[in-house]
Amino acid sequence: MSEDTKVQLPLGIKEILDFLPHRYPFIMLDRVLEFEPDTMITALKNVSMGEPFFQGHFPGEPVMPGVLILEGMAQAGAVLAYLSTEDITGKLVYFAGMDKVRFRKVVRPGDQLIYKVEMVRKKRKLIKVQCRAYVDDVLVTEAEQLAAFS
Question: b/e string for 70-97 if b means 16 or more Cβ within 10 A?
């Protein structure tokens, strides 16, 4: 994305899908609320009982799988990378690693996940981000993630 291009917030699902290759049922973002180039992004995911994973995780006690919360963080980080880096348009952003993962609270249908992702380091083809997910201002998950573009 060009430095001259101003991002109009919020970004809805149509704009998010312009950046990410993911599609239903694997898209884990609904909206981008805040963005500062090379610095941070805040995005949200509305968690609905209609999500296909709740059929088996767990019947009678629906809990969002932690790996999908991490995936939502990674997708928010990928949008941050796309919006901050002009020369990766049309390239894919791949998970390269995770550290310091902590699951602090469960996420259930009806919750709204807020992903706050901060850029820690950016090199030519690699980014490191600090990710946090909140429900009602309560930290539910955190992790450091690495991503590579190709």
Answer: bbbbbbbbbbbbbbbbeebeeeebeeee
